Each structure stands twice: as C-alpha cells, then as structure tokens.
Amino acid sequence: TACARIGTSLLHARPYDAPARGKMERFWRTLREGCLDFLGPVASLHDVNVRLCAFLDAHYHVTSHAALLGATPRTVFEAAPRAP
How much is the pTM? Predict the structure, then answer.
C-alpha cells in the first residue's frame, strides 16, 4: 500500500542473486557509515527521521552512483516517466 501511494514498485531480489543483494548491502553500509554511526543521542524517532532525510538530501541523492553509470539517483528519478 505504501509503495502504491508514492508510485513505486517493491521488488525483491531472487534468492542467491549476489549482484542484486550487493546493491542493498552497499546502501545499508553507506547509510550506516554516513549517517547512523554519527547520530549521537537522539530524543525521539522524529529526530532520527530528520537526520536521515538530511543525509539523503545532502549526500546520497546527489552523489553519483556507479550502478547508475555515474548519474545521481535524483536525476534518474526525475527523468523517469510517471505512471498515472
């Protein structure tokens, strides 16, 4: 339901598909090293969400990715056609 509301598809990697799993593992590693390891004391889940959104907007979405042939996730997302 959440994916349908924002217009995305949820895809799961096939079992034993190392290249597909590696992309997610790399994402979680990048997230942990760039954001989660530096959270420090947080008072609420809202604080974590604010810091996560700041990390994604300031770093992750604007950094070129090898899997996207050097493009940024933001430019790829914005260039994709929208389904009604």
Answer: 0.60
